[in-house]
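Hey, I'm writing a tutorial for new members on how sequence and structure tokens pair up, and I'd like a real worked example in the thread rather than a made-up one. If someone can provide the structure for the chain below, I'll link this post from the tutorial.
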Amino acid sequence: MNAIADRLKYIREKLNLTQGELALKLNISQQAYSRYERGLRRPSHKVLVALSEIFGLDVNQFYRLEVKDMKSEIGRAHV
């Protein structure tokens, strides 16, 4: 898995969202979102911006934070 994929899965699970629920919020298929989490596809910048809004994170945090450092940031999520 890649770092962004790890982060996406970690945040989604912490927020108790299914892949399908998150895909619906992004207006994409569950299969497309699953590919992001499995590292088979990299989300576009547009998708990362949408995810950052859903999660209440700065888009740059997908690139620079370690999963362990995201714990305090996720508490501010706007789901």
